[in-house]
Specification:
34% of the residues lie in helices and 14% in strands. The protein has 344 residues and is of the alpha/beta class. The radius of gyration is 18 Å and the shape is globular.
C-alpha cells in the first residue's frame, strides 16, 4: 500500500457532542434571519466579480449553456452548473449537507479563472434540484452524480467533495468513476467517511443521540436550527475572537432553506450512518484528504486520520485551527493547495 502523508500543524481532536450538539439548546434565543443572502469572496477574487452571474437556465439537454437540468436514472431532475472551456480538464464539486452547489462559488470562480472546466450539481432534494420523497441515501447521491458526469461526458476529472459531498465522492469514485475510467483524482474535504455514528465496530464515533437531536431540531424549527449551525460551529464563529461574517451565515441559511425539509431530515441518516470503509479501500486514484483540527462538525480523528489509512494513494493535510467550513473562511489557503494537487 502506497501512501504519501503530509500533515500541517496537527493537533488533538475534539468530539462533536459538546460542539455541534450544543447548537440544539440555545435555538430559542436566536431569531430567524431574513433578507437577501450575501456572498463572501476573498480579495484576490475581486477582479472576477463580473464572472459571478450565472446564465439563465437553458432548455433541458442544452449542453452549450452554463447551467441546466438532467434526469437521473430514476427520473429525478438534477440541477447542474457547467462553466469554462469544454476541452479543459473538469473539476467536479460535490456540496455538503444541507447546502447546494452555490457553496462552491469561490472555488468554481478560482478554478475557472485558472482555465479549468468547473462543474457542480445540487443534490436531490437540495437547492434547485427536484424535491423527491425518496432516494436520500449515498447510493442515490452517487448515482445522481454519475448521471451528470455521463450526460456531460466528463473524463479525466478531479472530484472534490466537502462533508457529505465527500461521502458522495467516495461512493461515486468507487462505484462509477473508476470502473468507467472517468476519474483522475479525488479530494475529500472535511468529509464524513468512513463512518460518523458510534457503533460496536466504531466505538470512537458520535452517539446516535446527537443525530437524533439534529432531526428533532430540524423538525421543530428548521429555519432557527440552520441559523444556529451557521452562526456557531460550522464556521467556528462560536470560538473566542472569531471574525463573524453575517453574510456568510445568511448565505448558508439561504442555501439550506432552498431545499426540502424531508431530504434534509432523511439525509442525516445518510451522512451519519453510512459505512464507507469499503469505498475508501476501493479508491486507487491519487486522493487528497484535507481537514481542520478545529472541525466541530466532523471530528477529524474519526474522519481524515482514518481516511488516510484506508485509501491506497493518499496525501493528508491537517490545518491547525481551521473549522468545518474552511473552504469559505480560509479559501486563500485552501484554494492554492487544491490547485497544486490538481496540477501535480
Amino acid at each position: 500500500m502506497v501512501k504519501q502523508c503530509k500533515t500541517t500543524n496537527g493537533a488533538d481532536s475534539s468530539g462533536i457532542g459538546t460542539a455541534f450538539a450544543s447548537t440544539l439548546t440555545p435555538l430559542t434565543r436566536r431569531s430567524v434571519m431574513l433578507g437577501t443572502a450575501g456572498v463572501v469572496a476573498s480579495a484576490y477574487l475581486s477582479p472576477l466579480a463580473n464572472a459571478q452571474a450565472v446564465p439563465n437556465q437553458p432548455r433541458r439537454g442544452d449542453r452549450k449553456m452554463g447551467s441546466g437540468i438532467i434526469k437521473s436514472k430514476d427520473g429525478t431532475e438534477i440541477f447542474y452548473k457547467d462553466w469554462g472551456p469544454k476541452t479543459a480538464q473538469p473539476i467536479v464539486f460535490h456540496h455538503g449537507w444541507p447546502l447546494s452547489s452555490d457553496d462552491w462559488d469561490t472555488q468554481m470562480l478560482f478554478f475557472h479563472a485558472n482555465g479549468y472546466r468547473v462543474v457542480a450539481h445540487d443534490r436531490r432534494g437540495h437547492g434547485r434540484s427536484e424535491q423527491v420523497d425518496s432516494g436520500h441515501d449515498m447510493d442515490h447521491y452517487a448515482a445522481d452524480a454519475s448521471a451528470v458526469v455521463e450526460f456531460l461526458d466528463l473524463r479525466n476529472a478531479v472530484h472534490i467533495g466537502h462533508s457529505t459531498g465527500g461521502g458522495e465522492v467516495a461512493r461515486y469514485v468507487a462505484k462509477y468513476g473508476q470502473p468507467q475510467g472517468r476519474v483522475a483524482k479525488a479530494v475529500l474535504v472535511s468529509a464524513v467517511p468512513p463512518l460518523m455514528v458510534k457503533t460496536a465496530g466504531n466505538p470512537d464515533g458520535t452517539p446516535v443521540a446527537v443525530f437524533d437531536g439534529f432531526r428533532s431540531a430540524l423538525a421543530a424549527n428548521r429555519a432557527e436550527f440552520y441559523t444556529a449551525v451557521a452562526s456557531g460551529p460550522f464556521y467556528g464563529f462560536n470560538r473566542p475572537g472569531a471574525k463573524v461574517s453575517q453574510s456568510v451565515i445568511e448565505n448558508w441559511w439561504r442555501q439550506g432553506m432552498m431545499g426540502s425539509a424531508l431530504a434534509h431530515y432523511q439525509g442525516i441518516k445518510a451522512f451519519s450512518e453510512t459505512d464507507q470503509t469499503g469505498d475508501l479501500k476501493a479508491i486507487t486514484v491519487p486522493t487528497l484528504i484535507m481537514q481542520g483540527d478545529d472541525d466541530q462538525v466532523v471530528p477529524y480523528a474519526d474522519a481524515a486520520l482514518k481516511q488516510i489509512k484506508l485509501v491506497r494513494n493518499g496525501t493528508l493535510k491537517i490545518y491547525k485551527g481551521f473549522p468545518h467550513g474552511m473552504l469559505t473562511t480560509h479559501a486563500e489557503t485552501i484554494n492554492p493547495d487544491l490547485l497544486a494537487f490538481v496540477k501535480a
